[in-house]
Amino acid sequence: MPAPARLTAALLLALLPAFAVTAADAAGKPYRSAQQILDASPDSVWRKLDPDRTLYMDLDTGRVVIELAPQFAPEHVGNIRTLAHEHFWDGTSIYRAQDNFVVQFGDVDGEDPAKAKSLGSAKTHLPAEFNRSAKGLDFQKLPDSDGWAKEVGFVDGFPVGRTSPDGTAWLAHCYGTLGAGRNNADDSSIGAELYVTIGQSPRQLDDNITVVGRVVKGMELLSTIKRGPEPMGFYTDPAQRTPIKSIRLASDVPVAERTPLELLRTDSQTFREVAESKRNRVDDFYKRPAGHIDLCNVPLPVRTPKD
Amino acid sequence: MPAPARLTAALLLALLPAFAVTAADAAGKPYRSAQQILDASPDSVWRKLDPDRTLYMDLDTGRVVIELAPQFAPEHVGNIRTLAHEHFWDGTSIYRAQDNFVVQFGDVDGEDPAKAKSLGSAKTHLPAEFNRSAKGLDFQKLPDSDGWAKEVGFVDGFPVGRTSPDGTAWLAHCYGTLGAGRNNADDSSIGAELYVTIGQSPRQLDDNITVVGRVVKGMELLSTIKRGPEPMGFYTDPAQRTPIKSIRLASDVPVAERTPLELLRTDSQTFREVAESKRNRVDDFYKRPAGHIDLCNVPLPVRTPKD
Known about the structure:
Two copies of one chain form a homodimer. By secondary structure, the first copy, chain A, is of the alpha+beta class. Chain A has helices spanning 34-39, 74-85, 219-223, 269-279; strands at residues 46-48, 54-59, 62-68, 93-98, 102-106, 132-133, 140-141, 151-155, 158-162, 168-171, 177-180, 194-197, 210-217, 242-249, 262-264, 302-303.
């Protein structure tokens, strides 16, 4: 004892980057894991985050890095840039954490005229930006579809659903999606109260709410926040809220204090190969490759530049 | 100020149980939220957990309640019952937490013959139980399919995929699924090292690993565990592991110390109505009902009995 059957801890679940691969795909081409494909990728398939559309949410536990999507929600992203620039969120909190759903943050007193923080020069009303025209988008279609959208794929690094090339397109709710909280009216969000999804992708929200971006680093700081009471996770004890030190645009932060990151270009052959590698896993662990991948199971690789 | 647009905190994301519903579905029948359907359900559609196939994982933070699935993995569940009965996991730890994937627990020294805990009278080798014959299962098919399985639905409260009524069926990896860690060999799991999924459903593991049950209460204790280092989340500092006080069969626990729970029967009309209510949300919040639901987005309601 132990029998070989106990050799499970380190090798289990086959996500080892250096996983020994002996299998080959049907065409006889050696199978490569996603990590092997990424390790061999040229620098040209990686892009730097644009500091003008990058948010840093600084918590006591570290930094959450968010990429904004002005091409899908220009009005909301504009307002969010104003709010960040004017320090609206500094000293606010994450005041809701609902398991397998969202964390939500902003001014917990936003509903109370006597206590609400000033919105400064941000707009107090915006149009709903649930979707946009699909025309002109560089849409990288996934081979598989799902029941939530006619077509699914990627645009500029974001998971997207669309009705057709000439129809409408919207940002999908996957793990790490940043959305603008709203009331029942579709135009009741202004980007001051935001949420990030932390569980199974709530795709039912797609095209029902304005999505403004996604977390590209630091999800583990949000996903591990103590949950508030059921059913909705709003803390009853204010002491349980997570303080937000600041939310700033990267371009407002001195260069030396920025977090350098590169994202894999979703219009690259490398990205297509990574998705296919996850779609059909042909290695020593998987006995039955799925031959399918859901939009929200496709990894969106991020790396720290070498220098 | 604030403008009505700021009234977002409490009403956002439309999961309020007492949500005021004025809309009606296409047939003119008033729409009811899932919570309204549950509140009006008869006691007969609820079932008590069977203490002989319920595990209590007691942590310093509270109790995780797990329902085992012997109808899908009889050999593994048999071994798990033996291991629990003989206190195998008491004093072990959760030694891995990978964000958006799994927490994993058991004997971290299981690979080291000199340190490994005794397996007692548990078996040291089991057959793989990735799937079983679909025949004889009371399969409640969902109206929608997905790309991971020909058909998806529920059996005895568990999310299940199957090839056909006469083919094979397997437990699907949704949020809270409990699986048996294994090495590359399909028959290398014995149920001593276990994992629970804590993020987007990793359906690519379906029919590739032996699933043994699911968490029915206490997921928030597992999902908030501090993540280990990337890429796989195994802690390098043993102090970061989460101690497991004990894992016991409910039937081995005095009745007064048990956690009474009732689960909605997935073969009930109430369950079908709840799934349909989530599938097509017709309320004041949702502007575009999805007309679809993924297997892992269907809620599996649990309640505490009234007396």
